[in-house]
Amino acid sequence: xxxxxxxxxxxxxxxxxxxxxxxxxxxxxxxxxxxxxxxxxxxxxxxxxxxxxxxxxxxxxxxxxxxxxxxxxxxxxxxxxxxxxxxxxxxxxxxxxxxxxxxxxxxxxxxxxxxxxxxxxxxxxxxxxxxxxxxxxxxxxxxxxxxxxxxxxxxxxxxxxxxxxxxxxxxxxxxxxxxxxxxxxxxxxxxxxxxxxxxxxxxxxxxxxxxxxxxxxxxxxxxxxxxxxxxxxxxxxxxxxxxxxxxxxxxxxxxxxxxxxxxxxxxxxxxxxxxxxxxxxxxxxxxxxxxxxxxxxxxxxxxxxxxxxxxxxxxxxxxxxxxxxxxxxxxxxxxxxxxxxxxxxxxxxxxxxxxxxxxxxxxxxxxxxxxxxxxxxxxxxxxxxxxxxxxxxxxxxxxxxxxxxxxxxxxxxxxxxxxxxxxxxxxxxxxxxxxxxxxxxxxxxxxxxxxxxxxxxxxxxxxxxxxxxx
Length: 470
Fold this sequence. Notes:
Elements: E1 7-9, E2 12-14, E3 17-19, H1 29-37, E4 41-45, H2 68-94, E5 99-105, H3 111-122, E6 128-132, H4 139-146, E7 149-154, H5 157-166, E8 178-181, E9 188-190, H6 204-217, E10 225-228, E11 249-253, H7 267-273, E12 281-284, E13 292-296, H8 299-309, E14 311-313, E15 324-328, E16 333-337, H9 339-350, E17 355-358, E18 363-367, H10 369-380, H11 414-423, H12 430-433, H13 459-466
Parallel strand pairs: 3-11, 4-5, 5-6, 6-7, 7-8, 8-10, 10-11
Antiparallel strand pairs: 1-2, 9-13, 12-13, 14-18, 15-16, 17-18
Helix pairs in contact: 1-2, 2-3, 5-6
C-alpha cells in the first residue's frame, strides 16, 4: 500500500478523506466535528438540519402555515437555524482542527437563502460549501460573498466544464476541489444523464481521468478531485495515488460514517446496515426531484415499485386501441383503456387496489383507498422542501408556486419520509416503511472484519482505520 499523505485543500493541508454530507439530519455537527478532529474534512448537512430546545432535545419541524408559501418560509427558517447550530457544534468538537464543510442540495427549496443565512450566522467557522444535485452555477458567487471555498459535486467532466465556463472561471481562487460523485455507486441522489444507462455502471477511472484533463486545461492542476461513491478500503484505490492521470485526489466516505458511535441514526438503523447483502441497495427513479437515487430496497421502495407497475395509459376519447370505457373517481368520469389493460385493472381492483389516480403522463395508477388518501394528504401538506417537486407540483420559480403539471402520485413526499426515518426511533417499522438512502457498498459492513461481532467504531477509530488503507 502506498503512503496516504496529506494534501492541500482549501488553503490548508488535510488528510485526503472527506465525510460525505447526508441530509436530512444524518450528517450532523457531532459526526462532522469528530471527523475534522481526526484531521480530515468533516461535513454536516445543511438540508433541514436539526435544531434544539433549551434542554438539548431536537425541535420537531412541524408546519403551521395554512398555505404552501407560508410553510415554505417556516422551512427556510428551520433550515437556517439548524444549520447554524450544527456548524457551531462541529467547530467546537473539532477544536479548530481539520476542516468543516457544509453540504447543500442545490435543488432543495430556498437553497441560496439557506446557504447565505447559515454563513451569515456562523462567523467564518465554516471553511467550505459542498453542493450538488443540479447545476449550481451560483455556488461560486455565494462562496465569494463569504470568502469560503466551494466544492461542486458533478458526475462528468462535461458538467464541470459547463459550470466553469458559465460561472466558476470568475472565482478560480476559491475552488477548493471538485467532487466526482459516481452516479451508479453513490448513495442518495445520483447524477445520471439521459445518455447513461442506469443498468450499466461505468468504471470511474476513465471518467475521473477525463475530469482531470479538463481541470488541467483550465489551469487547475493543483485543485484536488474528491472521489465519491463506492469507496471502502483505500488500498483498493492505491493506483489512483501519485498518478498523473488523476492528479491530487481525496476520497469521500458517505456510507461508512453511518455506522459510528457518533452517527445520529438509530441503533436499529445501525444494526440493519450490518445485515445488508449485495444488491439490497436499489437505484431507482421515484424521487420527486426527478433524479435517480440509491436507497435500501425495503417495503417503502417495494410499494413504490408495485405502485408504478399498476399503471395503464388512458385517453379521454376513444382512440385507436383505447376503446374500453372506464369510470374514474367518485363521479366515474369516463376514460378509455385498451381491452387488455381493462382486464389488468379489474384484477387489481379484485386485489383491493380500487383507487385510480391520474398522473401527468395520461396514465392511471391503482392503489388502495388508504394509500390514495395518504398520497393526497401529503400533496396538500407540501412545504416546498425542493425547488421543484413532481410529487406535489410545487415550484419556487413560478409566480403561482406550481410547475403547471398535475401532481404525480407515482412519487412521494421526500421531506416527510426522511424526517420520519431520522427521528422516530420508537417505531420498529420505520426502517421498513421509509426511505433509507445508502451507497451500494453498504453490504460490505457485514463482511468487513473491522465490524466483526457487531463492532461499532467511534469516528476517530474509523478515520484511523481508513488511513491504514483497510
